């Protein structure tokens, strides 16, 4: 077994990656959930959690995960599973260790607490940029470039196999991880470069039919990820193009899961582009594609996408019916067939999307209640979404005539945008809140919000 990362020099958990073997992160996370049920534990393991373990972000699992892993791998210690000793990563001790580092000395990397979650200490914009560059110039992205077929069009195609496809799949996962924490603005251009590389591999490579199926699916998912980065950074025309590219790939490959995902994002973009009729139709097309996949959670999200379109059309009755359908389907629970990309979709996201529906319908009191719930329920890992729901809450409260509470929510969103998250979409939501708060600038809470708003973004 490879030694686990030391406290001062954390790195990828290669031991855990070897243990996963040929299973995909989604398949392995399903096995973890099954093992948990066998011993009466409850863990919400998904492919993203496995990615965080293997990247070294989670350096020691919480006690529930430890029991599950030891059930799955009898006789293995935490060290043999690639984890660091628990007492070296507990939040309090890790912070003390960081404070004890002399000036100019090396500092430990980001730590996790004993529950497998990151300590929420401040990250500067510079640190966030370093993290983004670290992914874009190494790891999956660099490996993706190395797999590309070389030479002229007349040269013999380069053989593409499972390892090459895996680089595309890992690139998708890493882009999603970075977007969850930092938003889209700093990622889009480089991610688009790797998308072009993936499609060049698809066009110029030589591969078997099973590899072709995986390569189409992973390239399409990468197109959707890049499209989302374009969407979130305000490049709606480019987002629409990427989603159309993913949809064409899905249709050519006969892949209903990819088709449902592409239509899902197309619906969301149409809603934000004030094309509510298209949002409804795209969401309905997504539901038709997803009907054969067996995932109630996916159908729940797609019902929310449809509800957003109906809200934009001002059809309260149709919106309420879609919301009720989304809640009923969500209540069926998670399943192993839920798509890997849906790890963001939980009660917090559901509350946030419902808040946006009520806001479009002009029911700001109800919208604020759901946005407040979204902020309270969100996993700290999803920093971008906390900023999003806080900005949504600020706008709803401002429109509903509650300026002081709106300003406090706006300050929370500004704090996250300034430290860790770069998202033109969230910034635009704060701009709307700021315009609604202008008449109340003499209030102390609102004045504090505008001080931060003007300093960082300019009115």
UniProtKB/TrEMBL annotation:
Signal sequence, renumbered to the chain: none
Please indicate which superkingdom the organism of origin belongs to.
Answer: Bacteria
Identify the InterPro entries for this entry.
Answer: TPR-like_helical_dom_sf
Q: Where is the composition biased (Basic and acidic residues)?
A: 115-126
Region Disordered: start-end pairs: 1-22, 91-126
Q: Where is the composition biased (Pro residues)?
A: 1-10
Gene3D superfamilies xrefs:
Tetratricopeptide repeat domain
Residue spans making up a coiled coil are none
Official protein name in the record: Tetratricopeptide repeat protein
Per the UniProt record, the lineage of the source organism begins with: Bacteria, Bacillati, Actinomycetota, Actinomycetes, Kitasatosporales
């Amino acid at each position: 077994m490879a030694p686990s990362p030391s406290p001062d020099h954390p790195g990828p958990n290669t031991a855990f990656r070897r243990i996963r073997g040929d299973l995909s992160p989604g398949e392995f996370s399903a096995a973890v959930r099954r093992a948990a049920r066998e011993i009466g534990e409850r863990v919400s393991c998904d492919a993203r959690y496995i990615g965080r373990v293997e990247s070294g972000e989670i350096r020691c699992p919480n006690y529930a995960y430890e029991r599950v892993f030891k059930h799955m791998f009898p006789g293995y210690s935490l060290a043999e599973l690639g984890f660091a000793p628990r007492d070296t990563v507990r939040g309090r001790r890790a912070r003390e260790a960081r404070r004890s580092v002399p000036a100019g000395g090396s500092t430990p990397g980001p730590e996790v607490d004993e529950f497998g979650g990151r300590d929420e200490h401040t990250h500067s914009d510079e640190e966030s940029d370093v993290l983004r560059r670290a992914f874009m110039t190494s790891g999956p992205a660099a490996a993706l470039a190395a797999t590309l077929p070389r030479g002229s069009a007349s040269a013999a195609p380069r053989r593409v196999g499972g390892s090459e496809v895996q680089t595309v799949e890992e690139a998708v996962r890493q882009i999603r991880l970075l977007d969850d924490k930092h938003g889209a603005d700093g990622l889009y251009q480089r991610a688009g470069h790797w998308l072009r590389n993936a499609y060049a591999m698809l066009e110029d490579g030589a591969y078997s039919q099973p590899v072709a199926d995986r390569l189409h699916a992973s390239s399409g998912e990468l197109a959707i990820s890049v499209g989302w980065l374009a969407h979130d950074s305000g490049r709606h025309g480019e987002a629409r193009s990427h989603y159309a590219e993913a949809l064409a790939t899905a249709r050519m490959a006969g892949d209903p899961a990819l088709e449902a995902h592409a239509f899902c994002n197309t619906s969301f973009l149409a809603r934000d582009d004030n094309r509510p009729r298209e949002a409804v139709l795209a969401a309905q097309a997504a539901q038709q594609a997803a009907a054969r996949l067996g995932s109630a959670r996916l159908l729940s999200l797609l019902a929310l996408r449809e509800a957003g379109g109906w809200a934009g059309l001002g059809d309260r009755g149709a919106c309420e019916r879609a919301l009720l359908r989304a809640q009923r389907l969500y209540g069926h629970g998670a399943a192993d067939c839920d798509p890997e990309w849906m790890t963001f979709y939980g009660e917090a996201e559901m509350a946030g999307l419902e808040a946006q529906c009520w806001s479009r319908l002009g029911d700001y009191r109800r919208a604020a209640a759901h946005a407040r719930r979204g902020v309270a329920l969100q996993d700290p890992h999803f920093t971008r979404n906390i900023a999003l729901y806080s900005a949504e809450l600020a706008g709803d409260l401002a429109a509903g005539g509650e300026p002081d509470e709106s300003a406090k929510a706006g300050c929370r969103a500004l704090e996250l945008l300034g430290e860790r998250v770069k998202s033109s979409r969230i910034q635009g939501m704060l701009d709307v809140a700021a315009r609604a708060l202008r008449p109340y600038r003499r209030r102390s809470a609102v004045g504090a919000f505008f001080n931060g708003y003007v300093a960082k973004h300019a009115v």
